[in-house]
Amino acid sequence: MSLHDDGLTPEEMVNKGFLLTWVKRAWTSPALASVEEYFHPDCVVTGMAPEVLEGIAQVQAVYNTLHSRVEHKHAEVSFAFLKGEHFSMVMELQGVHRESDVEVVIEVAVFGRMKDGQIFQVHNVVDYSHMYAKLGMLDVAKIRTLFG
């Protein structure tokens, strides 16, 4: 199943709309993105930062840090799968690094679970390599030499 609603239950369709709205608001309209509105008070988030984030305050702090460094421009969800309260999505996030004015791309896959109509548990698999290479923080030539 891709982004089509074929075969989704009414609850899954509501959850899908909720998740896609979060991605769009969080990345392209940060002023409209309220972590408290979208995340369960007892949420647990992994993969977004080196540590496990527990609760809205920690998720909001990491979100604010990311937004302070990257001006969010565009979010494209290429895959979304929902089954009951569980979900997975693959997306590409585009922005501009504020300090260098360099356009960057971050690719993300997320796997999670909803509870009480909010995001409860989520694990992010984030590929920062494009962004790090564009910002000169990753020696692509050396990686090619070492790994072919």
TrEMBL record:
Pfam families: SnoaL_2. It comes from the Bacteria. Residues 25-121 form the SnoaL-like domain. This is SnoaL-like domain protein. It comes from Stieleria marina.
